[in-house]
Amino acid sequence: MSAAHIRSHASLRGIAAILVVMYHLQYGGGYHLIFENYTSIPTRLYLFVDFFFILSGFILCHVSYRVNSKLSFANSYMLFIKARVARLYPLHLFCLAYLLLFQLAIILFYSIFHRVAPFTLDFQITYGLIAQVLLLNAYLPIQPMWNIPTWSISAEVSAYLFFPFAFVTLINNNKLSLILLSVVPLFFYLTIIFGESIGLHSLDITVGLGWIRCLAGFFTGMILFSFRAIFVKIGNFGLSALQIIAATAVLLGLALPISDPLIIPVFVLLIGSTWPDRGILASALNVKPLLWLGEISYSIYLNHVCVVNILGFFWSRIRVLDEFHPSAVRLTWIILVYSVTILLSWWTYQYVERGGRQWLGRRWASGPVAPITTSPPAP
């Protein structure tokens, strides 16, 4: 592990990815298990995308702060952007490719038997595909389609373009930088809290204004980084208390009908109190299964909707399932989705994420790039 690798954050990233999968499993109608209907928590797990944004801003600051570059700002800026492209694009294009191939295969199969396919590649759908390939889907007012979670990595592109400039002023203790960084989060979150009259009432915003949601979280993470020393000075007992309070508050915030932005300070507390990698929660997070989930979290995040779409096509056509109790069918479906997603994500992490990043790194930097753990994934 790199010295810049925060184990607690790696595990939290894995847990967040697993929870986002559960959120998307709420769609499609049909029978839901008791725990899914008993509380509003499953339907509000989209908030962990905001957790990702905050974490991404914090970790990129943490990693960049440790890099002692002798390059000019212009060269450093270009290397940073290239590193982000190498981190995001191989898996992004791979997921879109196998989803597209699946749909083309189904369309061809149905056409051979002179039947109407369940989906087509009309102008709007093709336009949506092109927008996703170019990572423009967070900025355009288009219907969410294809690999829906890509809106968030599309939105992070805007954060990456701002990041080097903001980071340079931030590490120089520029108070003006802190004030400017806080404008977007304050304005955006207050708009959501008091935005019922204009139709905004939750943070579940993806296309169109998704990039503003990303910047709000990302800048919040950067601001948190500037105050990180506060948590280092706290002893293990104090950190443990803060971690327990934060974790409990996250559960309550998801379960209670509070405005979404009110959970953002709780996420900040959770990320801030765990970054020193000390305390009771940090110890609980420092286990190999959770760290492994953190490593493959980006693959889990980008693969899971593709898996749901492909498996769901066949699952809905298995008539024998009608003979079993709905709870057994639902539980089997959840286990199947998680199992296939995690196995596929393990493979894509090994051969697509790391392999693609190393290949691009050799082409752009004329040599191997740093370990993937020093390059935090997007949501």
Please tell me about this protein's structure.
The protein is mostly helical and 379 residues long. It has one domain. The protein contains 15 helices and no strands. It is globular and about 65 Å long.
- What structural category characterises the helix and strand content? mainly alpha
Number of strands: 0
- What is the arithmetic mean of pLDDT? 87
The fraction of residues assigned to DSSP E strands is under 5%
Biggest beta sheet summary: none
Keywords:
single chain; 379 residues; 15 helices; mainly alpha
Draw up the topology in text.
Blueprint: H1 7-24, H2 34-38, H3 47-65, H4 73-112, H5 123-133, H6 150-171, H7 175-193, H8 210-226, H9 229-232, H10 236-255, H11 264-274, H12 280-285, H13 288-295, H14 297-315, H15 326-365
Helix pairs in contact: 1-3, 1-13, 1-14, 3-6, 3-8, 3-11, 4-6, 4-14, 4-15, 6-8, 7-8, 10-11, 14-15
Task: Give a quick summary of the entry.
With 379 residues, this protein is mainly alpha-helical. The chain is built from 15 helices and no strands.
